[in-house]
Design a protein that fits this description.
The chain has helices spanning about 30-35, 45-60, 75-90, 105-115, 130-135, 140-155, 170-185, 200-210, 235-250; strands at about 15, 20, 40, 65, 95-100, 120-125, 160-165, 190-195. The protein has about 260 residues and is α/β, with parallel strands linked by helices. The strands form 2 sheets. A 6-stranded parallel β-sheet has the order 1-4-5-6-7-8. The protein has a two-stranded antiparallel ribbon with strand order 2-3. Helix 4 links the parallel strand 5 (about 95-100) and strand 6. The N and C termini lie far apart (about 50 Å).
């Protein structure tokens, strides 16, 4: 196994761990609950720690990226895992990050995660428009998003935000709302993508129903690169320009709307 091939900006000695399957959320763009179900099935904290011990002591791993879709769904489970990190001293040997939802955290939990070696928490922002969040059935509010980022920063964690552009109903005004929210949240890292209606998802069914698909060439269904959904108020070239504008403003720290 060539461990040198597995690296991120966090470390050149990293690996990924999956501690649970399933996600209870009902986001219409996501295929996770189609593949893994909506019931969250967790490994025991001790079992997860044993895998991490193997990674650390056998392969000299220094960073763990938890790939679970809603890592903090069960807060008691996370507290138990954090206690094991601290009890075993792994929090001094390995750092880690996780993905979760803004409505599934609180300050005490984030502080415990920080003590256990967590360095970054990654949240789905998705949109600065309450209307589009509702369309996506994300189940969060912009207020909760602001509170989550504030709590993470207060706990001493870095943050990453995920944003989806070109949700059906997206306009220049909603893109501007999203940009304003991003600049206010000021995450340490940002990922912008295009809404992509993967087959089997409710988003795909809605796009078929409303004749919004630009293509059924599945090789183009790459959420970071390609626009798959027709937009009735923004051209493809203009939407791409708006995406670059957000990226440029974020990188440069420019609060220009």
């Amino acid at each position: 196994m060539k461990n040198s091939l597995y690296r991120t900006f966090d470390s050149d000695k990293m690996t990924c761990v999956i501690a649970m399957r399933g996600c209870p959320a009902k986001c219409i763009y996501c295929a996770v609950n189609l593949v893994s179900g909506q019931k969250c099935r967790k490994r025991g904290p001790g079992n997860v720690i044993e895998e991490i011990k193997l990674c650390v002591f056998e392969y000299n791993t220094r960073f763990i990226a938890f790939l679970d879709d809603t890592f903090t769904f069960d807060k008691n489970w996370v507290h138990a895992l954090c206690a094991e990190f601290i009890k075993t001293g792994l929090n001094k040997r390995v750092k880690w990050s996780c993905l979760t939802r803004v409505d599934n955290i609180d300050f005490d939990l984030l502080k415990h995660m920080k003590q256990a070696g967590c360095t970054r928490v990654e949240f789905g922002i998705e949109s600065g428009s309450e209307k589009l969040l509702g369309y996506l059935k994300k189940g969060i509010s912009i207020r909760q998003t602001k509170e989550a980022f504030s709590a993470a920063k207060k706990a001493g964690l870095s943050t990453m935000g995920f944003v989806i552009l070109n949700v059906p109903g997206e306009t220049k005004e909603t893109v501007a709302d999203t940009k304003r929210l991003i600049m206010e949240l000021n995450p340490d890292f940002l990922q912008l993508s295009f809404a992509t209606p993967y087959p089997g998802t409710e988003l795909f069914q809605l796009c078929v129903k409303d004749n919004l698909l630009l293509t059924k060439d599945w090789s183009r269904y790459i959420f970071l690169n390609n626009q798959i959904i027709k937009n009735k108020s923004i051209t493809e070239s203009e939407l791409k320009r708006l995406m670059w504008d957000i990226q440029r403003s974020f990188i440069c720290g420019l609060n220009i709307y």
